[in-house]
Amino acid sequence: MVLSCALVWAGFLGLHLALNGRWWPWLAVSLIPPVTFAAVPLAVLACAAATGGWGAAALAAGCLVAGWSQNGVNARALLPRADRADRADRADRADRADRGDRTDHSGRTGRSRAGDGEPRLVSWNTQHWNQGGDPDRFHAFLRGLTADVYVLQEYLNGFEGGEVWDIDDEERLRASFPGHHLAVGNNSVTLSRFPPAGPPTPVGACSLRVDLRIGDGILSTYNVHIPVQLTVMNPLRPAFLRDMRRRAAARDREYAALVADLRGNPHPVVVTGDFNTSAAIGDIRRMPASLRDAIGACRSVLPASWNARARLRLWRIDWAFTGGGARVGSYRFRDAEGLSDHLVQELTLTVPHENHRREKGIT
């Protein structure tokens, strides 16, 4: 029995690794909780150890290793805080401090309000921008996040039938965030204390790039919202498959546009938002290998960002990446206080001095 379970799981895992991210119908299968890829082989391994089934144990161990990248477990959270990455971050900050590279919240060279020279960024899917809620509470929550840069998704209204329409909350945003620069596009909002280095750039149909001038350099922020995989409906209806195929094609276009823009961008970057992609969904492999997943700076072993209103959260579908010399100092998920089904991503960034980038040969 234990060996049979191990063989069935090995067969499923083989299909998953072969088809995931390559065959659009597998999108529905890859929606299983990522932790399943750790829980199942561990359970088989425990049963095999108890019954002496060493063949099943070996197979389960192999499945655990082969599927490790799919399980969403952040093993780096178990390392001491003073690991190699943390030491590298501290050395980088010390090097910039020696060069006088501190940045204040107006974008001028100087000492920041926090005294550490690290811009603080929050990224959040607002779930249709406070649709039907109290706008005063919504804006008070945003202000309470006290970020230097806000990267907000779903600047639109809609309902469960799938129909959405644009909204206009710009006047209220400007009043709520005096001194911030506002960029709106592709149903996304980017608010920043730092001045823009140019007009906002739509990326695909669902993401927004805003270049910010920080000190003597430029940081490109990517406000990402990848379309969801499927609509909740009867899976036996032909409309279900047609809708999923259409959505898979839309996801392909959005990832392709995002990757193309990133590969042509010479600046440090932070790429964050709602990817509607868990660790178990192969689409996340499309992100350039040059980018660093911010999860290494998170202290949660099993990070999850959705569903924020549920007691048990098994998915991380909101991501943050950095590249081009930008680094993450700290990263965590914060409760949205019932205002959205997504948690808030909070991170601090180390943005390299332009002269430092030239000396290091970062392009």
Give a short summary of the structure.
With 363 residues, this protein is α+β, with helices and mostly antiparallel strands. It has helices at residues 2-19, 26-29, 36-51, 54-66, 84-98, 127-130, 135-144, 170-176, 238-263, 354-360, and strands at residues 120-125, 149-153, 157-158, 164-165, 181-185, 188-192, 201-203, 207-214, 217-225, 269-274, 292-293, 318-323, 327-334, 344-350.
- The overall strand count is 14
Report the sheet with the most strands, covering strand number, pairing sense and barrel closure.
6 strands, mixed
Radius of gyration from the alpha-carbon trace, in angstroms: 22 Å
Strand order of the largest sheet: 5-6-2-1-14-13
SSE succession: HHHHHEHHEEEHEEEEEHEEEEEH
- Unreliable stretches: 90-116
- Output the structural class: alpha+beta
The rounded distance between the terminal residues' Cα atoms is 55 Å
Shape: globular
Count of helical regions: 10
**Beta-strand share of residues:** 15-25%
**What is the arithmetic mean of pLDDT?**
88
Walk me through what this model shows.
Helix content is 33%, strand content 20%. By secondary structure, the protein is α+β, with helices and mostly antiparallel strands. The N and C termini lie far apart (55 Å). 40% of the residues are buried. Mean pLDDT is 88; it is low at 90-116.
SSE blueprint:
Blueprint: H1 2-19, H2 26-29, H3 36-51, H4 54-66, H5 84-98, E1 120-125, H6 127-130, H7 135-144, E2 149-153, E3 157-158, E4 164-165, H8 170-176, E5 181-185, E6 188-192, E7 201-203, E8 207-214, E9 217-225, H9 238-263, E10 269-274, E11 292-293, E12 318-323, E13 327-334, E14 344-350, H10 354-360
Parallel strand pairs: 1-2, 9-10
Antiparallel strand pairs: 1-14, 2-6, 3-4, 5-6, 7-8, 8-9, 10-12, 11-12, 13-14
Helix pairs in contact: 1-3, 1-4, 3-4
